[in-house]
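Subject: design request, 399 residues
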């Protein structure tokens, strides 16, 4: 038995952190069903002495296409020392595959005992890092600047919680840190932007055997457009000069019967680029290809089909410079935790995209999740604990 109070404290800290994440991963809570996990966090906060008046939910879920049980959970805490307010966040929903997860410790990692589920480390591990950091501060009475703890909902279905957060409830934080999937020493300082494109192609129906020449086939129009986009390099990885982006047609629905010339076809596509003007070029190329294809297909009477395109931005790209205080803090904290810091820009969207768009530049850090969104998902215990060390350094203003 050790007599060193410091190492006792360390042991208590890391042991309870693992218990915490095991409990949080076992609570089902896909996007829109975050009521139970939010309740668990609120109970833990109250038990640690947080006043009811510091804990609130916003109404982000009311703006969500799926509704949902609760809005974002926001906890605003006064500091014991002066300094700019710091925000720690981690989304509390999981992908549906995680429902039923039975987390257990297997050597150096945590996995789900049920082989048909994902673990839910994405992102209960991130949510646990934030909660655990506060529980340590409360238990050990550590000094800290003003803190906002933020648990957004519905990240997995399109960053909904962060998009519709009531920003005024966050208390004007100056340094914002988000925990999500990946390595603890990897600071994500930027991410791509993403546009969603809905395309409806309307043809003219006719009997495919009796009067095929009277029809205008929606699938022929769409095929011509897609073939042209592919030939001109506007699909998949798109590179034009020194500009780059991606696009994808992911969903197609059309037709009811083989004996009817297809009169309607809908497609769902996306375009991404770190540069908004180039993303707009990709979207424009896709729109143009469909409109032109519709002009090129006529029936025997010379009639044509038509195309309708709707574009909406899912999230805007962002890139923080290395001089940003939040980036400097994150790098210093990673170093203080004994790790080699790395920065990277993501090709996927993060809650940080919307946070930054709302005026709260946010760095995202990992906490040891691997194989996310698959039944092989696991959480590295060592990396998870390192993420906890980094979070504590940041929350107590040591970096
Ligand atoms: Zn996630």
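Subject: RE: design request

Done. Sequence follows.
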């Amino acid at each position: 038995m050790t007599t060193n109070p410091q190492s006792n404290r360390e042991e208590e800290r890391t042991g309870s952190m693992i218990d915490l994440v095991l409990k949080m991963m076992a609570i089902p809570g896909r996007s829109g069903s975050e009521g139970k996990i939010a309740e668990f966090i609120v109970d833990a906060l109250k038990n640690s002495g947080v006043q009811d008046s510091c804990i609130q939910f916003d109404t982000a879920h009311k703006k969500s296409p799926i509704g949902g049980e609760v809005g974002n959970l926001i906890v605003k805490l006064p500091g014991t020392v002066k300094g700019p307010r710091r925000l720690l966040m981690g989304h509390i929903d999981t992908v549906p595959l995680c429902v039923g997860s039975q987390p257990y410790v297997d050597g150096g990692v945590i996995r789900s005992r049920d082989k048909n589920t994902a673990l839910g480390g994405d992102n209960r591990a991130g949510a646990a890092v934030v909660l655990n950091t506060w529980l340590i501060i409360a238990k050990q009475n550590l000094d800290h600047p003003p803190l906002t703890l933020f648990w957004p909902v519905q990240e997995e279905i399109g960053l909904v919680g962060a998009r519709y957060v009531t920003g005024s409830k966050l208390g004007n934080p100056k340094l914002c840190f988000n925990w999500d999937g990946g390595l603890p020493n990897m600071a994500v300082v930027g991410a791509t932007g993403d546009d969603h494109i809905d395309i409806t192609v309307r043809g003219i129906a006719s009997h495919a055997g009796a009067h095929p020449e009277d029809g205008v086939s929606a699938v022929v129009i769409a095929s011509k457009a897609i073939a042209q986009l592919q030939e001109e390099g506007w699909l998949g990885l798109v590179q034009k000069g020194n500009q780059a982006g991606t696009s994808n047609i992911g969903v197609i629905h059309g037709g009811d019967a083989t004996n009817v010339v297809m009169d309607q076809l809908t497609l769902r596509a996306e375009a991404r680029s770190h540069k908004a003007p180039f993303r707009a070029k990709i979207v424009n190329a896709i729109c143009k290809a469909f409109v032109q294809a519709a002009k090129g297909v006529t029936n025997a009477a010379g009639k044509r089909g038509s195309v309708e395109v709707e574009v909406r931005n899912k999230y805007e790209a962002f890139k923080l410079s290395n001089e940003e205080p939040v980036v400097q803090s994150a790098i210093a904290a990673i170093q203080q935790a004994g790790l080699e810091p790395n920065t990277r820009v993501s090709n996927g969207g993060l809650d940080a995209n919307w946070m930054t768009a709302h005026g709260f530049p946010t760095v995202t850090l990992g906490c040891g999740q691997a194989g996310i969104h698959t039944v092989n998902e696991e959480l590295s215990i060592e990396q998870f604990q390192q993420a906890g060390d980094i979070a504590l350094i940041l929350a107590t203003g040591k970096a």
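The pocket of zinc ion is lined by residues 91, 122-123, 155, 180-181 (CB under 6 Å).
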